[in-house]
Write a structure and sequence with these properties.
The protein is an alpha/beta fold. The chain has five helices and five strands; from the N terminus they run αββααβαββα. It has a five-stranded mixed sheet with strand order 2-1-3-4-5.
Amino acid sequence: MRELIDDAARAAAHGDVPVSALVLDASGAVIGRGRNERELRHDPTAHAEMIALRQAADATGDWHLEGTTLLVTLEPCPMCAGAILAARVPTVVFGAWDDKAGAAGSVYDLLRDRRLPHRAEVYAGIEAEACAAQLREFFATLR
């Protein structure tokens, strides 16, 4: 998670919310990496998770990302949670909770919703304070 926090700072450097994500294969190798790039790309879908999932799919040659783990500094939003489930990612690890738009247990719990055909195991709050502090600092500079 510390590596992700450092990487997230690069997103803030171009005006994006500092969030970073990695997709690891079953052996722990990085197969996808992303950071928020909505401002950089002028793309509303350029969230860290989406970019990391696309890279992982490219790296494996398959959109089924079974056996992988997604790590991200902020709880995934509904869009990202939907993509995570569509890609069949079985495990999600995140840092800070998102009490405004989180979809992994705070506002919504899409990743574990039994009504959906696929679910993910969620590990929340890893380095939560460091991840949250980075976000607080970013937003404080905007005010």
